[in-house]
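Recall that a protein's primary structure is simply its ordered list of amino acids. Everything else, from secondary elements to tertiary packing, is in principle encoded there. The following example makes that idea concrete.
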Amino acid sequence: MLIRVKLFAAMRDLTGDEAVEVELPDGATVGDLRRELGKQLPLARSLLTRSAIAVNHDVVEDDRLLKATDEVAAIPPVSGG
């Protein structure tokens, strides 16, 4: 299945892209997606380990199963004050 992942903030800045597409097998989890994103986006790999992954507007854990119709976003931590 092909998953489109929206990128925000520092993730978008590092990659220069607003979104990326990731090919995953059926039954893949958010953890699988995170690992594949790390392979595709090596500059963002360390940021991915600290980023939240949202599926259909809800932040989810790495064991969440994905469907091809899911809306997915990688949201890096924010800082400032």
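The chain is about 30% helix and 25% strand. The longest helix spans residues 30-40.
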